[in-house]
């Protein structure tokens, strides 16, 4: 449904309510309302982005998404808030708001990469959603392709690591490599795994369509072994993977998956 005039009027109020000092329950309600509003297919993107900019919403979302984590907090209110903020930053990219988020990309990248190998499915889904929408822009695509992830993190999250060209276990994997594995090695056929695979496949496809970055998976792995090396045929298959998944019946509404995945009210 199209956001009502009241919905647009509520956007400034929701933006300014996003402070780290607000009660967690109030923050979750505000974040949930923003997800519903910004994921509306009939939203006027220009109007929404103008309001988000005017009321400093992206700065507030970045502060929430990059808040320091605490031990054993998966499922806690703080973790839920961070995941929802990451989804919302992805939605801002999806609306064409890359210029609003770009100044914060270096701060967002580490927690958004770390969440991809979280043992908490909700966090992984939120991160996959962020990268899915963000990688249509070159900056985030570069950050994902170059990011370094310790192989132990993949193993801890149950993500297949694979072998090096010499048959050994790699010490590190790239962010693109993590996404490729999430897209192609879902552990079972559950709906959540299907949604995660689709989001990851979309992010990989976006990255590989930035032709100016092709050296990151062709020649650069010669000197940086952690980077994902892809043949021309493999890259073409990965670019088309979201379509293949759709034909296999995995396709879902991305916005709906994100809302459900982060469990915001």
What does this structure look like?
By secondary structure, the chain is mainly α. It contains 15 helices and 2 strands. Strands 1-2 form a two-stranded antiparallel sheet. Helix 1 packs antiparallel against helix 2 and helix 11 crosses helix 12.
Please give the structural blueprint.
Elements: H1 5-16, H2 24-38, H3 45-54, H4 57-65, H5 77-94, H6 98-101, H7 105-116, H8 121-134, H9 138-146, E1 148-150, H10 151-156, E2 172-174, H11 175-184, H12 191-208, H13 232-239, H14 241-247, H15 254-262
Antiparallel strand pairs: 1-2
- The number of distinct β-strands equals 2
Content-based structural category? mainly alpha
Helix and strand sequence: HHHHHHHHHEHEHHHHH
Number of helices: 15
Ranges where pLDDT stays below 50 over 5 or more residues in a row are 250-265
Silhouette: globular
Mean pLDDT: 85
Strand order of the largest sheet: 1-2
Most strands sheet:
2 strands, antiparallel
Rg, rounded, reads: 18 Å
The proportion of residues in beta strands is under 5%
Distance between the termini: 18 Å
Task: Bin the helical content.
Answer: 55-70%
